[in-house]
User: Fold this.
Amino acid sequence: MNYIVLDLEWNQGKKDITSDKNLPFEVIEIGATKLDNNFNIVDQYGSIVKPRLYRKIHPAIRDLLNYDESVLKKGRPFDVVFREFRKWCGEDYIFCTWGQLDLFHLQQNMDYYYFDRLPSPLKYYNLQEIYAKTKLGDSTKTPSLEKAVETMKIPIDGPFHSAKNDAFYTAKVFQKLSHRRLSDMYSVDCYQYPTCEEEEITIRHTNSIEYISSTFPDKKTAMKDSRITSMRCYRCNRNLKMKIHWFSNNSTQLCVGKCWNHGLQCGKIRFKNAKSDECFVIKTIEKIGKRDYEKIKKRQKDIQLKRLEKRHQKQAEEHAS
Assistant:
């Protein structure tokens, strides 16, 4: 099996004036590096895509790119480039990316041009998450590729924010990461989310379990469903004794339960937008230590105090008026 380290550059329209809701982000460059089963770099791919919708580069994108519209005009249409890229990938491979967005935007562009969808559920390696977890000790952090390259002292031979260059740098980071538990560290892309209970996905890792739900009308309805809020041990599937009940932490929901055989476990719920204004849920239950438990407990207390302060402030303002 080969590893295809993928990187994309994309463009967008200006707000709602020129944007197409079916393709808000148009791929303008595909870059990739192929590694064999022993993590040796065996080939590279790179091609500029001639835009069909957004021919003028958005100012925010222009600040990142190392080329302008004159380069895009010399590119080839997406359907031509993607067919070539897919053939280059071969038959037996798994995608690797720095973050979650590249595969999402690739598939969105594929849908726009009526390509057959990628296999589902689509497993891939999120190297940004793996790097954060193994090197920084916190999988919730989102380190930049530039920072990882600098930290690992990887030689910089070309500018960043070129898809071919970024794919190569990501591959070099991948080579330096430990591969001992790699088979247990894959993610599942959620562009093709479950639409019914029969399609729901459960993924078991060594120290965690991940559940991807079908759709709900809204977040409130999802949180009333026992499939979403139940907490069972990632290992033995017994009900956990709740130590910290579900609470809102910015855009996620957190809780902590305990299995008397397998210890403390953190539950995390992330809501993802689906079509037709619906949502679906990604729930993870992961083994944690006492230090992580104390951090989550403190986080809950801080949020409760802030809410209490806001309530008192509002009451004081109402009383003063």
Observations:
- The chain has two domains: 2-184, 194-305.
- The chain has ten helices and twelve strands.
- Residues 290-320 form the longest helix (31 residues).
